């Protein structure tokens, strides 16, 4: 992700209000969508996420979870057991986002063939 700060001062609260680009950058990360898809179904443990999201390393999963929690999209609950049990669940804000991600997925499915045709035409013209 870009190091550029896409947040602007928030006149209402004195903090920063994130721009659309930053919000999209956060949730469109390679692993974020998978985490959001899994956690909207209900509480899920770290190892369950690790198994469900093909190719994610423990480090990247940890960073993704922290960032989504920081952005208010996940709630992390630690249970006082030995070993500690940690669960993640999507917030209401993340569930709302999930609905929009489903819409984007449906759009991509509807237009997959058209995109493939357009790429083939473009590629044949470019060569």
Automatic annotation (TrEMBL):
Matches recorded under InterPro entries: HTH_HxlR, WH-like_DNA-bd_sf, WH_DNA-bd_sf
Domain of life: Bacteria
UniProt keyword annotations, A-Z: DNA-binding, Transcription, Transcription regulation
Boundaries of every HTH hxlR-type domain copy: 18-116
Protein name: Winged helix-turn-helix transcriptional regulator
Species this chain originates from: Actinomadura rugatobispora
């Amino acid at each position: 992700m870009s190091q550029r700060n896409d947040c602007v001062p928030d006149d209402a609260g004195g903090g920063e209000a994130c721009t659309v680009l930053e919000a999209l950058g956060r949730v469109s990360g390679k692993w974020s969508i998978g985490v959001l898809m899994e956690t909207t179904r209900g509480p899920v443990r770290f190892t369950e996420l690790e198994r469900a999201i093909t190719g994610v390393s423990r480090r990247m999963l940890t960073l993704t979870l922290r960032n989504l929690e920081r952005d208010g999209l996940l709630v992390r609950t630690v249970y006082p057991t030995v070993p500690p049990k940690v669960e993640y669940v999507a917030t209401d804000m993340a569930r709302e986002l999930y609905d929009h991600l489903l819409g984007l997925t449906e759009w991509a499915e509807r237009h997959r063939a058209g995109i493939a045709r357009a790429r083939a035409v473009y590629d044949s013209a470019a060569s």
